[in-house]
Amino acid sequence: MDFMTDQDVQKYKEDGYVVLEGLLTYQECDELRQRMAEIVDRMDVPEHCRTTFSTYHDEQLKTQGNADYFITSGDKIRFFFEKGVFGDKGEFVVPKQQSLNKVGHALHAYEPLYKNITHSPKVQGIAKKLGLVNPVILQSMYIFKQPGIGGEVTPHQDATFLYTEPLGRVMGLWIALEDATVNNGCLWFIPGSQNSGISRRMVRTLKGTFPLTDFTGRERTYNEETFVAAPVKKGGVVLIHGEVVHRSAENTSEDSRHVYTFHIMEALDTRWSPDNWLQPTEELPFPPLYTK
Question: Which GO molecular function annotation, any one, does this entry have (predicted)?
Answer without folding.
Answer: metal ion binding
